[in-house]
Amino acid sequence: MRIHVFDYGAGNLHSLLKALDGPERSLQVSTDPGAAAEGADVLILPGVGAFAPAAERLAGGRDAMRAAILAGLPTLGICLGMQLMFDGSDEGPGAGLGIFAGRVTRIDADRLPQIGWNALDDRRDGMFSASGLDVAYYANSFACRPSDPSVVIAWSTHGRDRFPAAVRHGRCVGVQFHPEKSSTPGRRFIEAFLDDARRAVPTLRSV
Predict the structure, then answer these.
(1) Where is the catalytic site (predicted)?
(2) Do the strands 2-6 and 26-30 form a parallel or antiparallel pair, or are they unpaired?
(3) Rounded mean pLDDT of 3-10?
């Protein structure tokens, strides 16, 4: 399984790469968005940084990456990576991938950023039942607001705000929390996503 991680230069990827590592997997980190999508069996958009500089890094290969995701490339966007799957963000200028219609806005709460553990409610995807993940680790001040609420597969609440904890469109999954920092259930969630991706790629089914 060729797992490509798009690095927009925002933070340490060590914990994420450790969670993704495993038998019969090759990990490649790329700062080129087009190269990150090309030849990948799985694409990961990591979760540290601010929207504007990440969108700027994405701009040169945005169309190629978007086309690959819409064509069925299994993709996991984590925190900022989830936000980049939307049209844009109030955090700063730049265009997201537009996989999900909607924008990213500041969470309505007195205490920001939200840093720490929070419950996941109304979970309705097999990845949650497979992993047992019902509480996850967050580090965010902004949240995604999809135009179509039916894409939401889990919710969380912070302050006065209830916001999507996870969204899904086909093989594209976005999570506002950090599964790689959410203890054993979080790492199991990543494994559940990769298992789902394996079933989506015919050449990997026998691995």
Answers:
(1) 79 (nucleophile), 178, 180
(2) parallel
(3) 89
